Amino acid sequence: MRYAGVVRLTALFVSLFPASANNPDNVTVSPRGGVVLCEDGGGVNDAFGFGERMLGLAPSGESYIFCKNNTLLTPADIAGAGKLVPPGDYRGREFAGACFDAAGDVMFANMQSPGITYAIWGPWARGNL
User: Fold this and answer.
1) What distance in Å separates the CA atoms of residue 28 and residue 34, rounded to the nearest whole number?
2) Which of 86, 82, 58 lies closest to 71 in space, CA to CA?
3) Are 69 and 51 in contact (CB under 8 A)?
4) Rounded to whole angstroms, how far apart are CA atoms 21 and 37?
5) Using an 8 Å Cβ cutoff, are 55 and 68 in contact?
6) In this predicted structure, what is the pLDDT of residue 8?
7) Contact, 55 vs 70, CB < 8 A?
8) Radius of gyration of the chain from its Cα atoms, rounded to whole angstroms
9) CA 7-10-15 angle, 5° bins
10) Distance between CA atoms of residues 80 and 68, nearest Å
11) Residue 128 pLDDT > 90
12) How many CB atoms lie within 10 A of CB 114?
């Protein structure tokens, strides 16, 4: 089916500064209609220190920090997890692929490197996510 009409897009959120959002490139919508953004900007310094973040988007169009990547892996951490990755500072690595389970109880998100999947439980009814 071809559509010959005009399509209009409206920006709900535009970030001009890394503190409000640092190159988000993964977006998902929660079961309640909240918006989650995963950053891909190499990390940002904010009130919680350096690292990549997952951001929420408020209905007003303002972003807020939902969670922060503070992953510093020691050799003991890696051995305990059975991983084969080098120890080090992974705070600048991006979250990606955020999604919710079918029941809407758990959000899953991946850290691309060193390859960790996080399962995050609510309580989702307390916020806009």
Assistant:
1) 8
2) 86
3) yes
4) 8
5) no
6) 85
7) no
8) 17
9) 140
10) 22
11) no
12) 17
Terminal-to-terminal C-alpha distance of the chain: 35
- Give me the residue label for tokens 């303002």: 62
Edge-to-edge strands, sheet with 24-29: 24-29, 35-39, 53-57, 63-68
- pTM over 0.90, yes/no: no
Residue for token pair 């001009």 = 16
As a whole number of angstroms, the distance between CA 98 and CA 35 comes to: 11
Take residue 126 and report the two structure tokens written for it: 């307390």
What DSSP element (H or E) covers 121?
A: strand 116-121
98 contacts 28 by C-beta, under 8 angstroms: yes
Q: How many whole angstroms separate alpha carbon 43 and alpha carbon 113?
A: 13
Strand partners, 96: 110
Residue with tokens 């955020």: 98
CB 23 within 8 A of CB 40: yes
- Is the preceding omega at residue 114 within 30 degrees of 0, hence cis? yes
Q: Report pLDDT digits (tens) over 71-111.
A: 999 999 989 888 888 999 999 999 999 999 999 999 999 99
